[in-house]
Specification:
Layout lengths: L5 E8 L6 H9 L17 E6 L3 E7 L9 H12 L6 E7 L8 H13 L4 E7 L9 H11 L4 E4 L8 H11 L17 H16 L8 E10 L5 E10 L2 H8 L4 H18 L2 E10 L7 H6 L7
Parallel strand pairs: 1-3, 1-4, 4-5, 5-6, 8-9
Antiparallel strand pairs: 2-3, 7-8
């Protein structure tokens, strides 16, 4: 046993659309968390794991902290906030902004962190530095230093890969001595059904109109390899929370649903390197996001 082996849990938190999931995928070198431009894309905590002979970093990508308007939203925020309690290191991710301006929600998150009493090391990650003039980064760093005594502040571009090694070195430096929690080579503990459902939901988020995506959920009903052919048959339901949205998701003569299924199938085949037969149905669960029963049955943790 290596008595110098370091390991720990690193919570990635922040408001929506600052690049938390992009950061996780960039670190892992493969797609574990879905990414879209729509807020609240991430609904569950997703673990990503990086291991080598000296250390193991277990990242926990959390839902974006926002002003919740539904019970599902409240659960998502609570899930993100509660993940602080088990963290060895917290990455507070924000997006670079001109003039050192601090977003109001960032100020609220920092305030909650300060009051949480956590002993976790805090690293501020200023993402998307490729979108602003480099001269604007220092004023932003100074503004955050006045707000909180971060252990490190690291400007990065998760999309371009800028400074990711600097951030990884900073994380590794603060890892405690600990065990190897997961086997080397394992990049996530998420189930195949969860990952496939997320890939389908991602395509729906891209293709559907603005008001629809937040009201959908995807459930995998079955995943079976055919006994006589190397084909993986997947059956899935897309649930919407308004009857009027079902037709929009299906589209004229099924065109929209076909697009969603085709893009999802291509993604799944690329990742699993198997021939996929994907069948998707659309069902209605009125106002499921405000139903404790459906939230629980859909597998979301009820943290309230």
């Amino acid at each position: 046993m290596n008595n110098d082996f370091r390991s720990g849990f690193v919570t990635i938190m922040g408001r929506p659309n600052v690049g938390k999931s992009t950061l996780l995928n960039s670190f892992l070198g493969e797609k574990v968390a879905i990414i879209t431009s729509k807020p609240q894309t991430t609904r569950n905590n997703i673990r990503g794991i990086i291991s080598n002979s000296e250390s193991q970093i277990v990242f926990v990508d959390t839902p974006g902290i926002h002003a919740a308007k539904t019970k599902l939203g409240e659960n998502m925020v609570k899930l993100a906030e509660n993940s602080v309690a088990d963290a060895d290191i917290i990455l507070l991710v924000t997006a670079a902004r001109d003039g050192g301006y601090i977003h109001k929600m960032d100020m609220e998150i920092v305030s909650k962190l300060s009051k949480s009493g956590t002993s976790a090391k805090k690293i501020l990650v200023i993402n998307k530095i490729d979108t602003i003039d480099r001269g604007e980064i220092l004023p932003m760093m100074d503004a955050y230093k006045e707000l909180c005594n971060f252990d490190e502040i690291v400007p990065i571009s998760a999309l371009k890969g800028d400074n990711l090694m600097v951030l990884r070195e900073a994380i590794t430096k603060y890892l405690p001595i600990g065990p190897r929690y997961f086997p080397e080579g394992m990049v996530t503990d998420a189930s195949d059904a969860f990952l496939v459902a997320e890939m389908i939901r991602e395509k729906a988020l891209y293709l559907l109109q603005e008001e629809i995506p937040h009201g959908i959920n995807v459930e995998i009903m079955s995943m079976k390899v055919r006994p006589d052919k190397p084909i993986l048959d997947i059956e899935a339901n897309i649930y919407c929370d308004k009857a009027s949205h079902k037709g929009m998701i299906i589209g004229k003569q099924g065109a929209m649903l076909k697009q969603i299924a085709t893009r999802a199938r291509q993604d799944i085949e690329r990742i699993y390197e198997e021939k996929i037969n994907l069948q998707i149905w659309v069902k209605i669960k009125e106002n499921w996001r405000d139903s404790d029963y459906f939230i629980k049955n859909f597998g979301f943790r009820n943290e309230t």
